[in-house]
Amino acid sequence: QDLYLSGIIRPLQEVPVVSPTAGVITHMEVSEGLRVVKGQRLLTVDTSGLTTEVRSAQVDYLNALSAEAKAERSLQEAENTYEENQKLYRYGVISRDQLQQSQDTLSDAEQNTGKSTKRQQGLEIAALQLANAKAKYDALLGQLAHSTVYAPASGIVLKLHASGSGSASTTGALGVGPGKTIHFQEVLLSVGDMKGLRVRLSV
Q1: Which is deepest, 61, 77, 99, 149, by most CB within 10 Å?
Q2: What pLDDT is recorded for position 94?
Q3: Is the dihedral of CA 139, 140, 144, 150 positive or negative?
Q4: CA-closest candidate to residue 74, choices 32, 122, 110, 99
Q5: Average pLDDT, stretch 67-85?
Q6: Phi, psi of 26 (to 5 degrees)
Q7: pLDDT of residue 12
Q8: CB atoms < 10 A from the CB of 13, how many?
Q9: What's the start-to-end Cα distance of the chain, in Å?
Q10: Distance of alpha carbon 47 from alpha carbon 24, whole angstroms
Q11: How does residue 168 score in pLDDT terms, banded at 50, 70 and 90?
């Protein structure tokens, strides 16, 4: 007696292809069912839309870096001035008020660079802001450098995920294609390793 069952045959392993950047797809070089090899070019993305974000992140990072450097430079200048003024005061060249003024300037500079516990918490926040600005800038630069998406493994293109924006007439039934807007770390499609199969049956 024959037994008929319906089910789904799938590869043992499916590797998602994740977008390393954000932008608009300009060239699509794969379709469902196509065999690809690891490192093969799958699609190309226009990342020019990230340019404004990169420039803004660069300005934030440089401003934070400049502020930190300026504080350090001010401290060095204040230390040198106070040291020289101490000598001048001993020789009677400047008044006590002038010496006190340079000492006050040094105290302010020390506060701005963390040598005063009073401003330590604020400086820690500033350091975090600098680190965050640099991390954002580096991440956006990395996205700009990855305008081409490659196959992460060899196998068969199993499915193209319907996501992003764009007209159905442009992308057809594949879900992604030229003209589609994609986002950073968005899953675009899957590649199935056909070295082994698994079957899911409906009983």
Answers
A1: 149
A2: 81
A3: positive
A4: 110
A5: 74
A6: -105, -35
A7: 79
A8: 15
A9: 17
A10: 7
A11: very low
